[in-house]
């Protein structure tokens, strides 16, 4: 499997996990982000690389900063040496907008995806 396909699949899994953590259906997220159900489904399965506009729509519908999705999809340089380094697990633990149950679920999903690579 080549790298762009792996990135699209990882990004799709991330979007799906965020949608599930938000407890909304694929149809609800598609409508809220201004796209069709089938297009969102294809993004979640890693079959399409969404445009910046689509990423902004998804981010808005999930109530997360667009930069999070841009970085996740490799469109934002996250290797800036001046930026503070925070692990994914630490960021999840520090997120005051998530309940402890959601943090636990997200940590479990993150570890499962990370360890399956």
UniProtKB/TrEMBL annotation:
<protein>
    <submittedName>
        <fullName>Transcriptional regulator, XRE family</fullName>
    </submittedName>
</protein>
<dbReference type="GO" id="GO:0005829">
    <property type="term" value="C:cytosol"/>
</dbReference>
<keyword id="KW-0238">DNA-binding</keyword>
<feature type="domain" description="HTH cro/C1-type">
    <location>
        <begin position="15"/>
        <end position="69"/>
    </location>
</feature>
<dbReference type="Pfam" id="PF01381">
    <property type="entry name" value="HTH_3"/>
</dbReference>
<dbReference type="InterPro" id="IPR050807">
    <property type="entry name" value="TransReg_Diox_bact_type"/>
</dbReference>
<dbReference type="GO" id="GO:0003700">
    <property type="term" value="F:DNA-binding transcription factor activity"/>
</dbReference>
<dbReference type="InterPro" id="IPR010982">
    <property type="entry name" value="Lambda_DNA-bd_dom_sf"/>
</dbReference>
<dbReference type="InterPro" id="IPR001387">
    <property type="entry name" value="Cro/C1-type_HTH"/>
</dbReference>
<dbReference type="GO" id="GO:0003677">
    <property type="term" value="F:DNA binding"/>
</dbReference>
